[in-house]
From TrEMBL:
A cellular component term, taken from the record's GO annotations: membrane
Protein name: Palmitoyltransferase
GO biological process assignments: fibroblast growth factor receptor signaling pathway involved in forebrain neuron fate commitment; telencephalon development
Subcellular location: Membrane
Molecular function GO terms recorded: protein-cysteine S-palmitoyltransferase activity
Residue stretches spanning the membrane: 72-99, 111-131, 196-213, 277-299
Domain Palmitoyltransferase DHHC stretches: 152-312
Transferase listed as a keyword: yes
Bilayer disposition of the protein: Multi-pass membrane protein
Free-text domain note: The DHHC domain is required for palmitoyltransferase activity.
Length: 382
């Protein structure tokens, strides 16, 4: 039996129609197909071009984790700010209620003047810089059309990004000269409030170290006093008298226990010693942790970098080292010049009026354009 070409063609058409009808009956729901296509697109996006590396894959995989952290940090920022205010206020109350009377009664007049002057100066610097760091805008690039130069376009804002500008996922906008998002400020640290943030860390560290060193002897005395109180509490309040005791007149008539004397301390004494221990432990712990952070930021400022630029410059140095080249940070103007620009020091008196005293002067430059390449002369002559 011979098969003609027309019969073979009809057979193929019939089989194709049947397979299509089966495929139509087994199709997934539209919403499920959309999810499947979206997941397939995410997987394919991991190798979208030759520039894909481990960082791109890591960011894509952990994007839900990053989003969750950003969301939680955004909503708990106010809680962190309240925690800073409550802890700092508790130390201040202990200093005024417990420590100040001790200082006035035991120290000599020169030491009293020193503690009162330094303590109040440090407290004013901490309060001023924390308020300014939390309430000052970090600086945002302009959203309207302008002729300012830019180095890239933000993938999330779809807006031009000037040099040293980065997108903050928590604030959900680009920040000029962004360093990081600080949950303890509930604000980003950028071009306009970077100086306030560093000054707050510096003076808070100095205040914690001051309380820890000056209160060390008070802490030891309070700890030893609580240990004595604990041993006194373990003693029995009375000793039963039996046998011949009542007959020979050891106790008044009708009394069967020999009562010991009242404890040589009060509830107020116990609370004073506990508050001193609380103050010393808190200030010592915060002083060590915040001191390490302050030193880290001081190193970055000396090199003309932010926290983000530190990681970017490290990768760039490694990339150029593979080509036998040396990378130089274009925003590093020398250690002294970096500090002058950071604090806004334009003359010698500014080291006192703008660094050691509260000052709300604006930072150097507008944060949109920067002088690049290191220079040997002072950008701000002093």
């Amino acid at each position: 039996m011979r098969c003609s070409p027309s019969s073979m063609l009809n057979l193929l058409r019939t089989g194709r129609l049947r397979s299509c009808s089966r495929r139509g009956r087994s199709r997934l729901p539209l919403w499920l197909r959309k999810i499947w296509l979206y997941l397939k697109l995410l997987v394919r996006s991991l190798c979208f071009n030759s520039l894909t590396d481990s960082d791109v894959v890591f960011d894509s995989i952990f994007e839900p984790v990053f989003w969750t952290v950003d969301y939680v940090t955004r909503w708990f920022g106010l809680v962190f700010v309240c925690l800073v205010v409550i802890l700092t206020s508790s130390i201040v109350l202990i200093a005024y209620i417990v420590l100040l009377p001790l200082v006035l009664n035991t120290y000599s007049p020169p030491w009293i003047a020193w503690h009162i002057c330094y303590g109040h100066w440090n407290l004013i610097m901490i309060a001023f810089h924390y308020y300014k760091a939390a309430k000052t805008s970090p600086g945002y690039p302009p959203t309207e059309k302008n002729d300012r130069p830019f180095v890239s376009v933000c993938k999330k804002c779809i807006m031009p990004k000037p040099a040293r500008t980065h997108h903050c996922g928590i604030c959900n906008r680009c920040i000029l000269k962004m360093d990081h998002h600080c949950p303890w400020l509930n604000n980003c640290v950028g071009h306009l409030n970077h100086r306030y943030f560093f000054s707050f860390c510096l003076f808070m560290t100095l205040g914690c170290v001051y309380c820890s060193i000056s209160g060390r002897n008070l802490f030891l005395d309070a700890y030893n006093a609580l240990e004595r109180f604990k041993h006194l509490d373990l003693e029995k309040p009375g000793i039963p008298v039996t046998g011949m005791g009542p007959l020979i007149g050891l106790l008044p008539s009708g009394q069967t226990n020999f009562q010991t004397a009242a404890p040589p301390y009060t509830f107020k004494d116990r609370m004073i010693h506990k508050s001193i221990i609380y103050m010393w432990v808190l200030t010592s712990t915060v002083g060590v942790a915040l001191g390490a952070l302050t030193v880290w930021h001081a190193v970055l400022i000396s090199k003309g970098e932010t926290s983000i630029e530190r990681h970017m410059n490290k990768k760039e140095r490694q990339r150029l080292a593979a080509w036998g080249k040396v990378y130089r940070n274009p925003f590093h103007y020398g250690k002294l010049n970096n500090w002058k620009i950071f604090f806004g020091v334009e003359k010698n008196s500014h080291w006192v009026t703008r660094v050691l005293l509260p000052s709300g002067h604006p930072p150097h430059g507008d944060g949109l354009t920067w002088d690049i390449f290191p220079v040997r002369k002072d950008l701000i002559p002093v």
